[in-house]
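Apologies for my clumsy wording, but are you able to produce some protein sequence, whichever is easiest, and the tokens describing how it folds?
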Amino acid sequence: MPHPYQGIRTSVQDCGHFVSGEWITSSGSKVEINSPYTGSPMASFRNADQPTVEKAIAQAHAASKDWSKTPIKERSQVMYRFRDELIADLELIASTKSFESGKTIGEAKAGLLKGIEVLEFALSIQNMDAGGKLEVSRGVSCEFRREPIGVVSGITPFNFPAMVPMWMIPIALTLGNSFVWKPSEKTPMTSLLIADCLKRSGLPAGVLTVLQGQKETVEMIIDHPLVASVGFVGSTDIARKVYQRATNLGKRCLALGGAKNHIILLPDADPEIAAQGIADSFTGCCGQRCMAASVLLAVGDVDQIIGKVKAIVESRSPGVDLGAIITKQQVEFLHSAIAEADAEGADVVVDGRNSNNLPSEFKAGNFIGATILDNVKPKSMAATKELFGPILSIIRVKDLSEALEIEASNAYGNATSVFTSSGAMAEEIARSSRSGMVGVNIGVPVPREPFSFGGTKNSKFGMGDITGIPSFPLWSDMKKVTVKWHKQNDANWMS
């Protein structure tokens, strides 16, 4: 049976910039990208240079004036058509994002479908965010009006080249803004398909802009005086820098960073549910996601369940059940991290470095197998550093109190999960956890819309969340209008 990735790309894709509804090139430096699956060239682009950025944002600003005046129900009609276009192109987008990001086809489809779910939430804004009007005094009324802020921007990561942009673009556009999108320089191809879907949906030229580029392009977008707001998802180090740069310029910004998520495993957990949930959490997307549970806090005697986790992940083959790692440099880093954990005294129970049974077409790709490290020390590198690979670090603890102390000391605050059959224990962990997202018998506790996505501590810089109602202040202002038409016979302080 042919492998699902065979033959999906036979030539190098030239990725341009989407400016005022057309694909253009720039004179910036050229960047070439290899597929993580095959190691062969798959795409190239030229960095958006200063003239390209200036032209693009000026045209986005001009387009925002008419778009902001378009009634929200008409803007929503474009989003309805956008949803239809994405679903029609689901297979093409999934195969493309798989090939460039390293996901399996199933993971690529799931990510896009989650993005479409956020789009469906955006479609509900026309009905749920209607503002309000109240007679606050005799002859005097006050009214809320939600207003777009003009040109906004999003800087998105390689690991979810469709889902994360879809967290931002539909809500920002539906609220009446123009959106400038800088995709990851590692995964430019998916942006071409999403932009084309929006163009076919009838989005006016200039309302969406796509600028390919690296660090310098990001800085030009953030610094541009017409860009009012910045959304970012990526590593914590870069998220902090983006947030500081944007807010120092007086812009609003929400920057989501990395994570070191914990799963607390209690002895009363359902063995089948727990083992499957833990295995899927740290190996899904080959561990390249901010919601992967990379630390297992094993409370008491849970060896039977850990044995089941081991059996599940040992049956998963890189290049077949597990996707690819984004770069060869990251594979080398993961190898060195496993070696360092071994040197620090951890037991390498499952060693993904020994995975050599790759499909022939992937021999030059970037792969590592699932890895389990047991008896990891709480303050060691494997327990505290985000590795971004399919590696699970098991810390043995005597009781729940010790587990919660370790979870609370975590520098990050994205997600914490617990596997248990006790409602009281689950509620205690949900109440005590310092993370922004908590799962009970769920290994990847990503909230479904309309519940919003966002962490705490070093996993988030800024206020609000990136999806749901808490995202509205990032992309819009709330105007308050107070009106009086006639003189009243009686008087109060408002008179």
Summary: The longest strand covers residues 140-148.
